[in-house]
Amino acid sequence: MQAPELRPLSIGEILDVAIKIYLRNAWTLFRVVLVVVAPVEIVSALIQASAASNGSGIDTTGDITLVDSHDLALYLSAFGAAALLGVLANTVATGASFKAVADAYLGEEPTWRSSLRFAFARLHSILWITILGGIGTVVGFILCIVPGVYLWIAFAVAVPVLLTEGVKGTSALGRSRALVRGRWWGTFGVVLLGTILAGVVSAAIGALAGVAAGTTDPGSVAGFLVNSVSGTLGSMISTPFTAAFVSVLYFDLRVRKEAFDLQLLAERIGLTAPPEGGYRPAPGPAPAPRPAGDAVPPYWPPPPGWTPPES
What we know:
The protein has helices at 11-24, 26-53, 69-105, 112-121, 123-143, 145-154, 158-165, 169-180, 184-213, 221-258, 260-268. It is mainly α. The protein starts with 10 loop residues before the first helix and ends in a 43-residue tail after the last helix. It has one domain (25-283). Helices cover 70% and strands 0% of the residues. The protein contains 11 helices and no strands.
Protein backbone atom coordinates (compact mmCIF):
# COMPACT_ATOMS: atom_id res chain seq x y z
CA MET A 1 0.00 0.00 0.00
CA GLN A 2 1.05 3.62 -0.42
CA ALA A 3 2.96 5.26 2.40
CA PRO A 4 0.70 7.61 4.35
CA GLU A 5 1.29 11.34 4.19
CA LEU A 6 2.17 12.11 7.79
CA ARG A 7 2.45 15.62 9.20
CA PRO A 8 2.20 17.27 12.61
CA LEU A 9 -1.41 17.29 13.80
CA SER A 10 -3.36 19.50 16.18
CA ILE A 11 -5.21 18.03 19.18
CA GLY A 12 -8.51 18.01 17.30
CA GLU A 13 -6.91 16.43 14.22
CA ILE A 14 -5.34 13.65 16.29
CA LEU A 15 -8.72 12.74 17.77
CA ASP A 16 -10.39 13.05 14.36
CA VAL A 17 -7.85 10.71 12.74
CA ALA A 18 -8.20 8.28 15.63
CA ILE A 19 -11.98 8.19 15.27
CA LYS A 20 -11.72 7.61 11.50
CA ILE A 21 -9.22 4.76 11.94
CA TYR A 22 -11.42 3.30 14.65
CA LEU A 23 -14.55 3.38 12.48
CA ARG A 24 -12.84 2.09 9.32
CA ASN A 25 -11.36 -0.89 11.17
CA ALA A 26 -14.15 -1.36 13.72
CA TRP A 27 -14.94 -4.98 12.81
CA THR A 28 -11.28 -6.02 13.14
CA LEU A 29 -10.88 -4.13 16.42
CA PHE A 30 -14.12 -5.51 17.85
CA ARG A 31 -13.03 -9.08 17.12
CA VAL A 32 -9.63 -8.44 18.71
CA VAL A 33 -11.32 -7.50 21.99
CA LEU A 34 -14.20 -9.96 21.76
CA VAL A 35 -11.99 -13.05 21.48
CA VAL A 36 -10.08 -12.37 24.70
CA VAL A 37 -12.48 -10.27 26.79
CA ALA A 38 -15.79 -12.08 26.30
CA PRO A 39 -14.70 -15.36 28.02
CA VAL A 40 -13.37 -13.42 31.01
CA GLU A 41 -16.56 -11.37 31.27
CA ILE A 42 -18.58 -14.59 31.29
CA VAL A 43 -16.45 -15.99 34.12
CA SER A 44 -16.78 -12.76 36.10
CA ALA A 45 -20.55 -12.71 35.60
CA LEU A 46 -20.77 -16.34 36.76
CA ILE A 47 -18.87 -15.46 39.95
CA GLN A 48 -21.18 -12.50 40.62
CA ALA A 49 -24.23 -14.65 39.98
CA SER A 50 -22.92 -17.35 42.30
CA ALA A 51 -22.23 -14.80 45.04
CA ALA A 52 -25.66 -13.24 44.64
CA SER A 53 -27.40 -16.61 44.88
CA ASN A 54 -25.57 -17.48 48.10
CA GLY A 55 -27.92 -16.14 50.74
CA SER A 56 -25.51 -16.75 53.60
CA GLY A 57 -22.62 -15.07 51.86
CA ILE A 58 -22.21 -11.65 50.35
CA ASP A 59 -25.05 -9.29 49.59
CA THR A 60 -24.81 -7.72 46.08
CA THR A 61 -25.45 -4.29 47.57
CA GLY A 62 -22.01 -4.45 49.13
CA ASP A 63 -23.09 -5.37 52.68
CA ILE A 64 -21.75 -8.53 54.30
CA THR A 65 -24.37 -10.45 56.25
CA LEU A 66 -24.01 -13.78 58.05
CA VAL A 67 -20.73 -14.48 56.31
CA ASP A 68 -19.42 -18.00 56.50
CA SER A 69 -15.62 -17.92 56.54
CA HIS A 70 -15.31 -20.79 54.07
CA ASP A 71 -17.78 -19.20 51.64
CA LEU A 72 -16.05 -15.85 51.94
CA ALA A 73 -12.61 -17.35 51.28
CA LEU A 74 -13.96 -19.25 48.30
CA TYR A 75 -15.61 -16.15 46.89
CA LEU A 76 -12.54 -13.96 47.37
CA SER A 77 -10.33 -16.58 45.71
CA ALA A 78 -12.63 -16.87 42.72
CA PHE A 79 -13.00 -13.10 42.50
CA GLY A 80 -9.20 -12.66 42.63
CA ALA A 81 -8.71 -15.24 39.88
CA ALA A 82 -11.33 -13.50 37.74
CA ALA A 83 -9.68 -10.14 38.35
CA LEU A 84 -6.29 -11.54 37.32
CA LEU A 85 -7.78 -13.04 34.18
CA GLY A 86 -9.41 -9.69 33.47
CA VAL A 87 -6.08 -7.87 33.73
CA LEU A 88 -4.40 -10.36 31.39
CA ALA A 89 -7.27 -10.24 28.90
CA ASN A 90 -7.33 -6.44 28.86
CA THR A 91 -3.54 -6.38 28.43
CA VAL A 92 -3.72 -8.67 25.40
CA ALA A 93 -6.68 -6.75 23.96
CA THR A 94 -4.87 -3.44 24.44
CA GLY A 95 -1.67 -4.68 22.81
CA ALA A 96 -3.53 -6.23 19.89
CA SER A 97 -5.57 -3.06 19.42
CA PHE A 98 -2.39 -0.96 19.33
CA LYS A 99 -0.91 -3.29 16.71
CA ALA A 100 -4.03 -3.16 14.52
CA VAL A 101 -4.31 0.63 14.77
CA ALA A 102 -0.61 1.14 14.02
CA ASP A 103 -0.87 -1.08 10.94
CA ALA A 104 -3.90 0.83 9.71
CA TYR A 105 -2.27 4.23 10.35
CA LEU A 106 0.87 3.25 8.45
CA GLY A 107 -1.06 2.08 5.42
CA GLU A 108 -1.13 -1.66 6.10
CA GLU A 109 -4.16 -3.95 6.29
CA PRO A 110 -4.67 -5.06 9.92
CA THR A 111 -6.11 -8.47 10.78
CA TRP A 112 -7.37 -9.58 14.16
CA ARG A 113 -5.45 -12.86 14.12
CA SER A 114 -2.03 -11.33 13.40
CA SER A 115 -2.69 -8.56 15.92
CA LEU A 116 -3.53 -11.07 18.66
CA ARG A 117 -0.46 -13.20 17.85
CA PHE A 118 1.69 -10.09 18.05
CA ALA A 119 0.23 -9.12 21.44
CA PHE A 120 0.40 -12.62 22.94
CA ALA A 121 4.10 -12.86 22.04
CA ARG A 122 4.76 -9.63 23.97
CA LEU A 123 2.28 -10.09 26.82
CA HIS A 124 4.90 -10.15 29.57
CA SER A 125 6.58 -6.98 28.27
CA ILE A 126 3.30 -5.07 27.92
CA LEU A 127 2.22 -6.16 31.39
CA TRP A 128 5.58 -5.19 32.88
CA ILE A 129 5.68 -1.62 31.56
CA THR A 130 1.99 -1.21 32.47
CA ILE A 131 2.81 -2.19 36.05
CA LEU A 132 5.93 0.01 36.17
CA GLY A 133 4.11 3.01 34.74
CA GLY A 134 1.15 2.47 37.06
CA ILE A 135 3.37 2.25 40.15
CA GLY A 136 5.25 5.40 39.19
CA THR A 137 2.04 7.30 38.56
CA VAL A 138 0.39 6.14 41.80
CA VAL A 139 3.47 7.07 43.82
CA GLY A 140 3.43 10.48 42.16
CA PHE A 141 -0.22 10.97 43.12
CA ILE A 142 0.46 9.90 46.70
CA LEU A 143 3.42 12.25 47.15
CA CYS A 144 1.70 15.11 45.37
CA ILE A 145 -0.99 15.21 42.72
CA VAL A 146 1.07 17.23 40.22
CA PRO A 147 3.90 14.65 39.81
CA GLY A 148 1.28 11.94 39.33
CA VAL A 149 -0.41 13.85 36.52
CA TYR A 150 2.97 14.61 34.95
CA LEU A 151 4.02 10.94 34.94
CA TRP A 152 0.61 9.80 33.68
CA ILE A 153 1.11 11.94 30.58
CA ALA A 154 4.87 11.32 30.30
CA PHE A 155 4.28 7.55 30.12
CA ALA A 156 1.25 7.82 27.82
CA VAL A 157 2.95 6.38 24.71
CA ALA A 158 5.05 3.69 26.45
CA VAL A 159 3.00 0.79 25.02
CA PRO A 160 3.28 1.91 21.36
CA VAL A 161 7.00 2.51 21.98
CA LEU A 162 7.32 -1.11 23.10
CA LEU A 163 5.25 -2.55 20.27
CA THR A 164 6.65 -0.36 17.49
CA GLU A 165 10.30 0.05 18.46
CA GLY A 166 10.91 -3.04 20.56
CA VAL A 167 12.11 -1.00 23.56
CA LYS A 168 11.20 -2.69 26.86
CA GLY A 169 10.79 -1.99 30.57
CA THR A 170 12.09 1.23 32.04
CA SER A 171 13.70 2.07 28.68
CA ALA A 172 10.23 2.20 27.10
CA LEU A 173 9.05 4.55 29.86
CA GLY A 174 12.11 6.74 29.36
CA ARG A 175 11.61 6.77 25.60
CA SER A 176 7.95 7.78 26.08
CA ARG A 177 8.98 10.59 28.41
CA ALA A 178 11.58 11.80 25.89
CA LEU A 179 8.99 11.92 23.11
CA VAL A 180 6.49 13.79 25.27
CA ARG A 181 9.10 16.30 26.50
CA GLY A 182 8.37 19.69 24.93
CA ARG A 183 4.84 18.57 23.96
CA TRP A 184 3.48 17.79 27.43
CA TRP A 185 0.49 20.14 27.28
CA GLY A 186 -0.50 19.00 23.80
CA THR A 187 -0.20 15.38 24.89
CA PHE A 188 -2.22 16.16 28.02
CA GLY A 189 -5.00 17.64 25.88
CA VAL A 190 -5.19 14.57 23.64
CA VAL A 191 -5.10 12.06 26.50
CA LEU A 192 -7.61 13.98 28.62
CA LEU A 193 -10.16 14.50 25.84
CA GLY A 194 -9.73 10.97 24.50
CA THR A 195 -10.16 9.47 27.97
CA ILE A 196 -13.29 11.55 28.56
CA LEU A 197 -14.79 10.42 25.26
CA ALA A 198 -14.05 6.76 26.00
CA GLY A 199 -15.43 7.16 29.52
CA VAL A 200 -18.65 8.77 28.34
CA VAL A 201 -19.31 5.95 25.88
CA SER A 202 -18.55 3.27 28.49
CA ALA A 203 -20.81 5.03 31.02
CA ALA A 204 -23.61 5.22 28.45
CA ILE A 205 -23.34 1.48 27.83
CA GLY A 206 -23.40 0.82 31.56
CA ALA A 207 -26.48 3.01 31.95
CA LEU A 208 -28.26 1.20 29.13
CA ALA A 209 -27.36 -2.12 30.72
CA GLY A 210 -28.79 -0.89 34.03
CA VAL A 211 -32.04 0.12 32.34
CA ALA A 212 -32.22 -3.22 30.53
CA ALA A 213 -31.58 -5.11 33.74
CA GLY A 214 -34.20 -3.16 35.68
CA THR A 215 -35.01 -5.16 38.79
CA THR A 216 -33.53 -8.33 37.32
CA ASP A 217 -31.94 -10.62 39.89
CA PRO A 218 -28.15 -10.71 39.26
CA GLY A 219 -28.23 -14.43 40.02
CA SER A 220 -30.77 -15.13 37.28
CA VAL A 221 -30.01 -16.03 33.69
CA ALA A 222 -31.16 -12.57 32.55
CA GLY A 223 -28.90 -10.83 35.05
CA PHE A 224 -25.99 -13.02 34.00
CA LEU A 225 -26.53 -12.15 30.33
CA VAL A 226 -26.83 -8.42 31.03
CA ASN A 227 -23.59 -8.35 33.06
CA SER A 228 -21.67 -10.35 30.46
CA VAL A 229 -22.88 -8.40 27.45
CA SER A 230 -22.49 -4.93 29.02
CA GLY A 231 -18.94 -5.64 30.20
CA THR A 232 -17.90 -7.03 26.82
CA LEU A 233 -19.47 -4.17 24.87
CA GLY A 234 -17.81 -1.59 27.10
CA SER A 235 -14.39 -3.13 26.48
CA MET A 236 -15.04 -3.58 22.74
CA ILE A 237 -15.73 0.13 22.34
CA SER A 238 -13.37 1.81 24.81
CA THR A 239 -10.20 -0.32 24.47
CA PRO A 240 -9.70 0.07 20.68
CA PHE A 241 -10.56 3.78 20.81
CA THR A 242 -7.99 4.39 23.53
CA ALA A 243 -5.42 2.49 21.46
CA ALA A 244 -6.38 4.57 18.42
CA PHE A 245 -5.83 8.02 19.87
CA VAL A 246 -2.67 7.00 21.78
CA SER A 247 -1.17 5.41 18.64
CA VAL A 248 -1.89 8.47 16.50
CA LEU A 249 -0.43 10.63 19.28
CA TYR A 250 2.74 8.49 19.32
CA PHE A 251 3.31 8.78 15.58
CA ASP A 252 2.57 12.51 15.71
CA LEU A 253 5.29 12.96 18.35
CA ARG A 254 7.77 11.06 16.17
CA VAL A 255 6.85 13.10 13.10
CA ARG A 256 7.47 16.30 15.05
CA LYS A 257 10.73 15.24 16.69
CA GLU A 258 12.30 12.67 14.37
CA ALA A 259 10.93 13.37 10.87
CA PHE A 260 9.28 9.95 11.00
CA ASP A 261 7.28 10.80 7.88
CA LEU A 262 10.46 11.09 5.80
CA GLN A 263 11.95 7.97 7.34
CA LEU A 264 8.80 5.96 6.61
CA LEU A 265 8.72 7.20 3.02
CA ALA A 266 12.37 6.22 2.55
CA GLU A 267 11.68 2.74 3.91
CA ARG A 268 8.68 2.29 1.65
CA ILE A 269 10.68 3.11 -1.51
CA GLY A 270 13.55 0.87 -0.46
CA LEU A 271 16.19 3.35 0.67
CA THR A 272 16.47 1.73 4.09
CA ALA A 273 15.22 -1.58 5.37
CA PRO A 274 12.93 -1.46 8.40
CA PRO A 275 14.47 -3.40 11.30
CA GLU A 276 12.83 -6.59 12.41
CA GLY A 277 10.08 -6.03 14.95
CA GLY A 278 9.09 -2.47 14.11
CA TYR A 279 9.97 0.96 12.85
CA ARG A 280 12.99 2.66 14.42
CA PRO A 281 15.07 5.73 13.64
CA ALA A 282 17.08 5.21 10.48
CA PRO A 283 20.68 4.10 11.19
CA GLY A 284 23.59 6.47 10.72
CA PRO A 285 26.06 6.31 7.83
CA ALA A 286 28.03 3.10 7.46
CA PRO A 287 31.64 3.26 8.64
CA ALA A 288 34.37 3.55 6.01
CA PRO A 289 35.83 0.17 5.00
CA ARG A 290 38.97 -0.77 6.89
CA PRO A 291 42.05 -1.89 4.94
CA ALA A 292 43.40 -5.35 5.60
CA GLY A 293 46.71 -6.44 7.06
CA ASP A 294 49.37 -4.12 8.47
CA ALA A 295 47.84 -1.12 6.69
CA VAL A 296 45.37 -0.59 9.56
CA PRO A 297 46.15 2.79 11.22
CA PRO A 298 45.41 3.62 14.86
CA TYR A 299 41.91 4.62 13.69
CA TRP A 300 40.24 5.14 10.33
CA PRO A 301 40.36 7.37 8.35
CA PRO A 302 44.10 7.84 9.03
CA PRO A 303 45.41 11.04 10.58
CA PRO A 304 47.12 13.57 8.28
CA GLY A 305 50.66 12.48 7.35
CA TRP A 306 50.20 8.86 8.43
CA THR A 307 51.81 6.20 6.20
CA PRO A 308 51.68 2.41 6.49
CA PRO A 309 54.65 0.86 8.31
CA GLU A 310 57.37 -0.66 6.16
CA SER A 311 57.31 -4.43 6.02
